[in-house]
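Duplicate of #3305? Posting structure anyway:
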């Protein structure tokens, strides 16, 4: 059922009753923007604090435009769940000094249009809301008797004209009519509150109250002598105004007061927006945010995280193809789960959705989240009890308790957000047999260490058995004070207390071989002689010179210890080199300007250089296989030269090539080999 300003007041009592009877509530929301860009890219090593810090600045500009709630009620007589779904349309409001704002991204608008989002309902009939912080501001203004004055000063021109017309109508009625009552039809609750106060101030003798039959009408009595005349107390008028301004915030208050478990899918961002929209501005500290959310909703379940963890208990053929909400819902609704072939509780909708219901509609998605939670909880309860049978909500929640207050984080160092109440203790999963091994779930920090220590202790004792902390620490002692370094010459950092002694691994059979681990050792003194050629060589990464030579070694000859290398004696040396010898050695590379990923690997800067390529060295210009290649060289060398000059120049080289054997530009070899290329015919550019 869709809830807007048109029917919210009429449906509020039914919503309250259904919420009170429910055992848990499915939750989903649609947003006005999507977090995108490099700043909000999910990184694998983000901590939860870092992820929160990234989100909070951007989320301040986002709002929930639609919220879906599905109340799941359990009928014990027939072991059936009844689902009552609501879709609430929300819209920001302006009220006195409060002017709520938000952003709409074009990509989000396009996404919502694709899924049939009704922007008219959002704009014209969206429910107002207030955060706790904004509500406190209004309460303070009411206590200070400044609210009416602030509202009067902030009225728009059209509302001022309407207010004046209402006062004129009352004045004419008092002057020209003998009737005892007058009705004013005022649909805007804020303007209705202002009208009550304005009429009482201008006409002190009259009495005003809201009409009992129609809340949009203001009933005015001429004086106290009229039968049934009464004036609504100021507190009643203020309470009616607050109820209107709170709008959907009343539903949030009901959820908080009834403490119903909240079921969502990938609900971390939803909780951040809930805080910003209904509690107040996001706090700077991540721990404060968690505390505030936990006080509002003490029990939150995320089916994204639950399905990710429980998928590990299935084989590849049994598991869902992905744990996106649509895929997960279809997996269970189409009875593809082999673990739930018998004894499944039926789930019925009180008001059916459309046959081809679109996803990303908040009410439907909240129903799908709750549906998947019931099926996952049923499966977990059956694993614990060992029987396939109908399972009630209490047993479902008990089976899912290890996953309570675990909100999924996307590609983070920590796979979930932990509620503030459980950050300082280890959470143990109810023990159960999984493939003959007792299974335990806990905070990830020490989990891997315990498992590695258990393995190491087993290797030493050669027995599979439970291992206590003392034996675990003893087995892991060789790795104590070892902090990993990333791709370093030394694979770990050794604590200062451990650098001067040898660490022996507890001796134990590893495949029949006694195993020993120790600090990387310098061997016998004679080993230093063997390593002398590498003395004073500091590695350089991808440099022209593969190492840096110590300054004390640059001016003398370094001889490598001679020795057979494949039958050949090998020698390395360094000596001072003068500029002439340096230039002579580098002459093959003279006038070669590099080109980046070109057909020609370099640009030659002198005609004589690219044409002859003759140097003392055997390195020459890459051969031009046709006179046309030479023309391309000319074009590179002289970008401003006219095309005809290039053509003539190429023709000249071609004729010289045919006439004489001394022109070796085509091959870069000796003149005697030029005739072997077999080139003939006139060259074309």
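Output from current build:
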């Amino acid at each position: 059922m869709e809830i807007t300003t048109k029917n919210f007041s009429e449906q509020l009592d039914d919503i309250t009753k259904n919420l009170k009877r429910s055992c848990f509530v499915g939750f989903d929301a649609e947003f006005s923007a999507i977090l995108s860009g490099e700043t909000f890219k999910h990184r694998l090593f983000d901590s939860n604090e870092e992820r929160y810090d990234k989100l909070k600045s951007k989320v301040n500009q986002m709002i929930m435009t639609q919220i879906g709630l599905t109340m799941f009620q359990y009928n014990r007589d027939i072991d059936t769940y009844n689902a009552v779904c609501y879709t609430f349309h929300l819209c920001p409001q302006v009220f006195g000094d409060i002017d709520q704002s938000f952003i709409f991204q074009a990509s989000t608008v396009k996404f919502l249009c694709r899924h049939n989002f009704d922007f008219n309902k959002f704009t014209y009939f969206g429910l107002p809301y207030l955060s706790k912080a904004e509500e406190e501001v209004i309460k303070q203004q009411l206590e200070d008797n400044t609210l009416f004055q602030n509202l009067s000063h902030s009225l728009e021109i059209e509302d001022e004209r309407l207010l004046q017309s209402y006062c004129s109508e009352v004045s004419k009625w008092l002057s020209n009519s003998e009737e005892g009552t007058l009705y004013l039809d005022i649909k805007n609750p804020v303007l209705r509150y202002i009208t009550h106060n304005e009429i009482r101030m201008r006409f002190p003798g009259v009495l005003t109250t809201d009409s009992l039959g129609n809340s949009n009408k203001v009933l005015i009595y001429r004086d106290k002598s009229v039968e049934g005349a009464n004036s609504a107390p100021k507190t009643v008028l203020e309470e009616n105004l607050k109820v209107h301004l709170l709008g959907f915030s009343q539903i949030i208050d009901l959820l908080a007061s009834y403490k119903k478990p909240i079921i969502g899918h990938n609900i971390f961002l939803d909780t951040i927006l809930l805080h910003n929209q209904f509690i107040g501005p996001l706090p700077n500290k991540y721990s404060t945010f968690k505390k505030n959310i936990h006080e509002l909703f003490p029990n939150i379940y995320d089916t994204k995280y639950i399905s990710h963890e429980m998928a590990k208990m299935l084989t590849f053929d049994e598991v869902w193809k992905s744990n996106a909400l649509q895929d997960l819902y279809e997996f269970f609704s189409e009875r593809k789960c082999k673990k739930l072939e018998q004894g499944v509780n039926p789930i019925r909708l009180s008001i059916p959705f459309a046959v081809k219901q679109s996803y990303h509609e908040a009410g439907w998605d909240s129903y799908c989240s709750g549906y998947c939670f019931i099926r996952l909880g049923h499966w977990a309860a059956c694993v614990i009890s060992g029987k396939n049978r109908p399972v009630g909500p209490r047993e479902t929640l008990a089976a899912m308790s290890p996953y309570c207050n675990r909100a999924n984080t996307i590609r983070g160092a920590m796979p979930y957000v932990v509620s503030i109440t459980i950050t300082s203790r280890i959470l143990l999963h109810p023990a159960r047999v999984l493939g003959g091994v007792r299974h335990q779930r806990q905070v990830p920090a020490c989990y891997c260490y315990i498992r590695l220590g258990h393995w190491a202790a087993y290797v030493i004792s050669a027995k599979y058995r439970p291992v206590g902390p003392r034996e675990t620490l003893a087995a892991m002692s060789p790795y104590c004070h070892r902090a990993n370094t990333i791709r370093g010459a030394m694979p770990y950092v050794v604590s200062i207390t451990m650098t001067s002694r040898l660490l022996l691994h507890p001796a134990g059979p590893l495949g029949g071989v006694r195993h020993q681990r120790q600090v990387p050792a310098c061997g016998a003194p004679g080993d230093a002689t063997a390593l002398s050629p590498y003395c004073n060589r500091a590695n350089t990464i991808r440099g022209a010179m593969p190492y840096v030579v110590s300054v004390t070694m640059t001016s003398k000859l370094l001889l490598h210890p001679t020795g057979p290398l494949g039958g050949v004696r090998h020698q390395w040396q360094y000596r001072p080199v003068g500029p002439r010898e340096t230039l002579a050695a580098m002459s093959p590379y003279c006038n070669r300007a590099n080109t980046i990923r070109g057909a020609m690997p370099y640009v030659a800067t002198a005609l004589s250089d690219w044409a002859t390529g003759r140097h003392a060295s055997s390195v020459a210009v890459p051969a031009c296989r046709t006179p046309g290649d030479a023309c391309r060289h000319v074009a590179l060398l002289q970008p401003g030269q006219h095309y005809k000059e290039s053509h003539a120049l190429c023709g000249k080289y071609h004729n010289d090539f045919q006439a004489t054997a001394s022109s070796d530009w085509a091959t870069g070899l000796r003149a005697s080999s030029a005739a072997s290329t077999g080139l003939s015919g006139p060259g074309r550019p």
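Confirmed duplicate; merging threads. The two ends are 78 Å apart (CA to CA). Residues 294 and 522 are 57 Å apart (CA to CA).
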